[in-house]
Structures are given as structure tokens and as C-alpha cells.
Amino acid sequence: MRAHVQCVVGLLLVLGASGTARAQGWAPANLSASAASWDEVHLAWTDRSNNELEFRVERRAPGGSFAGVGVVPANVTAFADVGTLPSSAYEYRVVAVRSNTEGASGVVSVSTPGFLAPTPLTASAVGWDRVQVSWPAVTDAAVATRRYS
Predict the structure, then answer these.
(1) Domains along the chain with CATH numbers
(2) Is the backbone of residue 145 left (phi > 0), alpha (psi -120 to 50) or beta?
(3) DSSP classification of residue 49
(4) What is the pLDDT of residues 83-133, one digit of tens each?
(5) What is the DSSP code (8-state) at residue 18?
(6) I need a labelling partner for 78 at 20 to 30 A (CA). Which of 27, 88, 123, 129 fits?
(7) What's the rounded Cα separation, in Å, for the pair 125 and 133?
(8) CB 44 within 8 A of CB 92
(9) CA distances from 58 to 36, 62, 67 (A)
């Protein structure tokens, strides 16, 4: 008896000799993504396998090709993607890697927030080699001076 294996939307389908499909639901499920900040996205998923070697986290721009952004060991169900850009849209999937096959989760989308520019921002020359930049305080440091040579 020969079996045919086909991967469809994150489920491994095993077709037996009778042609009946049996879903092997071991691919990661319930993938969620949230932008923690402009440069960090948090991902979480459900591990439905008991024998994966690792999980590969993949990211793409909408409509682009997926590329790996990280790997976590078996049984880990969260990942923080640091290095995203502000005001950007991303799509993620998580791939469970076994010794001889892989199973991908569904795809989730997330957008990172943009920068909030300080307003009003003022700059004034305080010498031939210095500029003072000021903005309303959001912490105790309201004025910063930097000297460039």
C-alpha cells in the first residue's frame, strides 16, 4: 500500500491507498502577531506537534517572498522579531520542522506604528560649532546639546 503526501495550507494530508485524506494537524495553529513598538513584533502560536525539531519564523512584505527571521527550539510558542521598520506592514508564518517534513501555520498580518515626532521642535545655533535642539519634555531631559567636531 502506497501513501501520497501533500501539504495544503499548513495541514499535512496523507492520502491512503483508497484516496481518503486524513489531516495530520500538527502544523502550528492560532498564530497571532502584535506590534510591541515600531521596531518589534511579538508572535505567539499553538504547538500541535509532539516531535518537531524546531520552529522557523518567517516574514515577508505583503505580496513578497517569505524569508526566515528566527528559529526557536521545539515546544517554544513565542517569538519577538526585533528589527522591523516604522510604519511598515508585514506578514508572518511559523513552520514546524521535523526530521523529514515541514508544516506551516496560516499567515497573519501586522503593521508597525510610525515615529511620533516631537512638536514643536526648535533648533538654534549657540556657537559656530554647536546647535541646540529643544522640544517639550516627555521625560526630565527637555534640552539636549551635542557637539560635533
Answers:
(1) 26-111 (2.60.40.10), 118-149 (no CATH)
(2) beta
(3) -
(4) 899 999 999 999 999 988 899 999 999 999 987 666 788 888 988 889 988
(5) T
(6) 88
(7) 9
(8) no
(9) 18, 13, 5
